[in-house]
Amino acid sequence: MKKRQVTTITPNPAIDKTYWLEGLQPGRQNRVSRVRVDPGGKGLNIARLLKGYDLEVAAIGFFGGIIGRELIHMLRTEGVEITPVFVDGNTRTNTKIMDPTSGEETEINEPGPYVGAGEQKQLLQLLSDYAVQSGYTVFSGSLPQGCPADYYRDLIATAQTFGCKTLLDTSGAALREGIKAAPDLIKPNQQELSELLGREITTPAMAAEAAMELRRAYGIAVVVVSLGALGAVMASEEGTYHAIPPKVKPENTIGAGDSLMAGFIYGMVSDRPLAECLRLGVASGTLAVTDQATSVAKPQFEAVLAMEKRVELKRLD
Ligand SMILES: Nc1ncnc2c1ncn2[C@@H]1O[C@H](COP(=O)(O)OP(=O)(O)OP(=O)(O)O)[C@@H](O)[C@H]1O
Ligand SMILES: O=P(O)(O)OC[C@@]1(O)O[C@H](CO)[C@@H](O)[C@@H]1O
């Protein structure tokens, strides 16, 4: 019996600083009307959400400087078990600008501190310690400077040797290389999928076709493609599905993908059929966009269950 249900791996965590600013003017002085600060980084968002959903979860990643220590403090205050690999330099601050009138969201993400080969090895070792105790390992977000594009491939291969299920949510070269390790699940969004395949994916039907193609080409058991307000499609051995969310008023869609992942993982951990995991994932993602925080400030599973009832599930194959 594994001690922990889920371990999330966040190589490039962040503090998210969100500004509310009407009519951003590049090249001019801009004054914001409101600001909020949240812990950020995809894997840390997933860990906080899963903790809020009452799962046994641990988080590991690279942290540095004052911001890194502040971030660890914020997470521990919420009761998230976190084991850092410390690096020189400062954990990044990612700036998000919300325009309340247009609804436009602008993201300015820093590259993160430099992570050397020794620290990369330390995280690999730490992952072995956690993978042996965990049912699922979740690899999320961009890689910091210094990490090669195939770093996730090595991490995933290591977790697989301990019989862990591996889930990957990243973009660009890290995604292209990471899928070569055949993780159990990937969750690109529409843009990440288009970039990966080198062609524009614009409809749920195209996304479903592309998801099936990726399963076949790389031996990935489950491919979920998130499509913003259109929900998400999934290709799996249990069928191809589209989960469609209800219409909601979006407050902040940043981190919605992490909430989708958290809902989906909750479903997997509780042995639900994959179509139900997708429905829970879309419910959790949709709930997140109604919250002003990047991801969700105070995740509660009862709210996900209420939203789940409003998500329509369609079989596509
Ligand atoms: N405008 C919206 N209305 C309703 N639900 C939404 C909206 N935007 C996102 N969602 C929900 O959140 C899920 C994930 O959204 P999205 O595809 O934007 O993820 P993402 O691009 O990976 O997000 P991020 O990288 O910011 O975490 C969707 O599948 C859907 O359930
Ligand atoms: O730069 P990355 O690692 O791709 O994304 C980082 C990030 O934008 O993702 C999260 C939302 O999903 C935020 O908390 C965080 O700032």
UniProtKB/TrEMBL annotation:
Its EC number is 2.7.1.144. It is an enzyme of class 2 (transferase). It catalyses: beta-D-fructose 1-phosphate + ATP = beta-D-fructose 1,6-bisphosphate + ADP + H(+); D-tagatofuranose 6-phosphate + ATP = D-tagatofuranose 1,6-bisphosphate + ADP + H(+). One of its GO terms (molecular function) is tagatose-6-phosphate kinase activity. InterPro entries: 1-PFruKinase, Carboh/pur_kinase_PfkB_CS, PfkB_dom, Ribokinase-like, Tagatose/fructose_Pkinase. SUPFAM superfamilies: Ribokinase-like. It holds the Pfam family PfkB. Gene3D superfamilies: 3.40.1190.20. One of its GO terms (biological process) is small molecule metabolic process. CDD domains: FruK_PfkB_like. Pathway: Carbohydrate metabolism; D-tagatose 6-phosphate degradation; D-glyceraldehyde 3-phosphate and glycerone phosphate from D-tagatose 6-phosphate: step 1/2. Keywords: ATP-binding, Kinase, Lactose metabolism, Nucleotide-binding, Transferase. Catalyzes the ATP-dependent phosphorylation of fructose-l-phosphate to fructose-l,6-bisphosphate. Belongs to the carbohydrate kinase pfkB family. Belongs to the carbohydrate kinase PfkB family. LacC subfamily. This is Tagatose-6-phosphate kinase. It comes from Capillibacterium thermochitinicola.
